[in-house]
């Protein structure tokens, strides 16, 4: 099927293209077909990633500042940090169980 897409469909390979299309739509599987087993994504990998993110985020937690003079730059960075953590962490925790469904929408 890949070769047909690369070459294009014309009069000489029209029957082969139609046959492949019918086979793919009908769910036909040859007897010698061996499916490729993809490794599943265990939950411990996601939990580890979230734990690392929380650990790194806690290392750089903002301090109480007044946005005057030199501290104004730090205040801007801390505001960005707070927005990043308040959006990213809940998104990871909430969307984690639905990730496979969300990814299917894009493919």
Give the total of beta strands.
0
Biggest beta-sheet profile = none
Low-confidence stretches: none
Distance between the termini: 19 Å
SSE pattern: HHHHH
The helix tally amounts to: 5
β-strand percent reads: under 5%
Rg result: 26 Å
**Share of helix among residues?**
55-70%
Quick recap of the structure?
With 107 residues, the chain is mostly helical. The chain is 64% helix and 0% strand.
Describe this structure in words.
The radius of gyration is 26 Å and the shape is elongated. The mean pLDDT is 78. The relative contact order is 0.07. By secondary structure, it is mainly α. It starts with a helix and ends with a helix. It is built from five helices and no strands.
How does the SSE layout of this entry go?
Elements: H1 2-7, H2 14-26, H3 43-59, H4 71-95, H5 99-105
Helix pairs in contact: 3-4
